[in-house]
Structures are given as structure tokens and as C-alpha cells.
């Protein structure tokens, strides 16, 4: 089976690479569309020969023979780390151009391609779920059946706690046979090691994003727009080396990419190039999630997850529908449980950068003013690191 796909809002090609991993030579990339120059440079280097369009706003038509359109549209206006302006925001609102192109196909009598959308779970609750309501209304007006499921990246074996809405719409197959043909349930806690814990060190009073044997969600920017990696606590390390940050190459692997995927010539100063790579990786789609979807697109299965009619106002974490009839699906965020890659098997501790004395002091100060970080030994470890890196100044008495 050959799948001809168009990747809109392509970023650094996470969906494309994942689909290629699952479909192999059965995937034909007919179009990639991305506006940000550094991302376009990565796409050009990693997908040579694939047609690359610079702006979805100026893209008038989809390729005539396309089977699948992937649209991981910007989450900037939907995420808690972003502006939360909603689906009508300047960035997230760009998805409207996708529907305009699909309507044009309908008027021309062309077949509707399958549509794969990825975005943040906050879209289910922000503005009372206006974003999901908008997507569903547009899909049903075009004649699509749709289904979505919140999926945790840890299901694929990657040690990153990254939850994303995966939405599939189709005019030719039941999307439930793709998204709900697998159900594994959450990975048991005893499958995780206790030698490393990930957390956000820049948000000490607002939430730590605590993650055993994993990092919290990698982000393209923090709440103040700065791309800062999460930190990792290594309990068995010496105090001055107990808190480190993963390298950008570690982050690439945590997203399912090969090391060095974003290491292209951006013609930028080294510090700016490093920050640019972090933003690219943080905004990417995890490749292994796309690989799971691609595998099921090639081989739909029996729907395993039970459903009940749904007429509520709050969008659940999994649902499906067609022509106004909606179902709530009893599905976990773990459709599969691939062998787990422990955090310290990916992060190269020898190359990881320790948090600076200033960073540790700032985080320790915020931690003391809040009620977070209650994991046994964590607060004491932060205090010990602060003392080791910022020893008190002794003044001689004459």
C-alpha cells in the first residue's frame, strides 16, 4: 500500500519521519509546508527532494492525489505555556487554511484525504473546548467521520511525559479502527527506575511537572517565551552534580529523532543556533506516536475500547463522531506499551550540563516559598546542592 501524504505545519518532520518508520517505502511525501526558516532548513536536509512550500496562507491547493494530510498546527494559542488566545489566535487559527483547501477539493469533486491532527490537550478545555468544537464542526461539514485520543508519549517507550491529542478524520474508513484498536493501560510504576527524576526548574512556584524516570514535556519555550530544558535530579550523584539538564541531542532522542537531526548550518552564532535547535525540538511531534498511527492506518483493527453516547459539554480525553452523533470512548492514554527506555539510558550524564550556582539558588529560593517538591529527599538535595555551589562567605573578625 502506498500512502501519498502532505505535511502541513511540518516543523522538523516528526510526523513524516514517524510515518516513514512504520510505512517504509509505502510512504510518498508529495508536499511539506513550513514557514520558519530554521525548520525549513532541517526539512531540506532530512527530506531531500520533497517539495517544500513556505507558507500555508499562500498554499492554494493540496496535491490532487494526496491520501493523507498531516497538520500539527501551532499550539501557541492553545497551550498553557503559550498565549492561550484560543483557536482564533494568530498562530493556532492558521488551521482554517487547511479546511479552506479541503472545501475547495469538495467543490472540485476530488476525494477527501484522511486528515491527521496533533495538538495539546489544553485545547479540550480552553474556552470551554472551543477549539475542539471548531475542528469537529468543520470536519462534519465536510462529511468526515472523526475520532481523537489523548496519548502519552511514554506509551511508545520514550521517557518523556508528553500528552497530546491525536485526531484522525476520514471519509473512507472508521477512524476508531485506527485510534482504538489498541489498548494497553498505563505502565506499572515498578517498571520505572528511581535513579532519575525530571522536573521544571524555571517554574518552581507554579508547578514542577514532576516525572519519575522521565522528563516533563519538552517545550519550545517557557511561560516567558524562553526555550529552557527541564532539569533532572540524580539522587546518587554528588550534590554539585545532582541536578543536570539534558543536551539538545538528548532531547532529539527523547522526541524519537536520531541524535543530530537538527544539527544543520543555520548560519547563526553558536548560542543562537543552540537556542534555535531547542525550540525546534520542543515544538516537534514525537515520531513514535506518528509511527503507531501509521502502522494502524496500514492495518486497521477491531475496536477494543468501549463507548457510550455522549452529549456533554466537557470534551473527554477520547471521543468519536459522525454527522452530529458523538461517542465518549473509554480509552487510556496508553494504546501500546513499547519496551521502556530509561531516562539515564538516553541522557548522557557525562555530557549533561549541571545547573549553575545561580540557577540552583534561584530554584531553591522559589521552592522554599511554595509547597512543591515533596518527593522524599528532593528538597534536602536541592538545599545540599545550593550549599555546595553557593557556600556562605566567611568574614574574619579582627
* Unreliable residue runs: 82-87, 222-226
Strand order of the largest sheet: 3-2-1-4-5-8-6-15-16-14
The coarse overall form would be: globular
Largest sheet: 10 strands, mixed
**H-E string:** EHEHEEHEHEEEHEEEEEHHHEEEHEHH
Strand content: 15-25%
Q: What is the number of E strands? A: 17
Structural class: alpha/beta
Alpha carbon gap, first and last residue: 86 Å
Looking at the chains present, what oligomeric state does this protein adopt?
A: single chain
Query: Could you report the average pLDDT, rounded to the nearest whole number?
Result: 90
Radius of gyration: 22 Å
- CATH topology label of the largest domain: Rossmann fold
CATH class of the largest domain: Alpha Beta
What is the helix fraction of residues, given as a range?
Answer: 25-40%
CATH superfamily of the largest domain: Vaccinia Virus protein VP39
**Count of separate DSSP helical elements:** 11
Total number of distinct structural domains? 2
At CATH level 2, the architecture of the largest domain is 3-Layer(aba) Sandwich
Keywords: Methyltransferase, Restriction system, S-adenosyl-L-methionine, Transferase
Catalytic activity: a 2'-deoxycytidine in DNA + S-adenosyl-L-methionine = a 5-methyl-2'-deoxycytidine in DNA + S-adenosyl-L-homocysteine + H(+)
GO molecular function: DNA (cytosine-5-)-methyltransferase activity; DNA binding
Family: Belongs to the class I-like SAM-binding methyltransferase superfamily. C5-methyltransferase family.
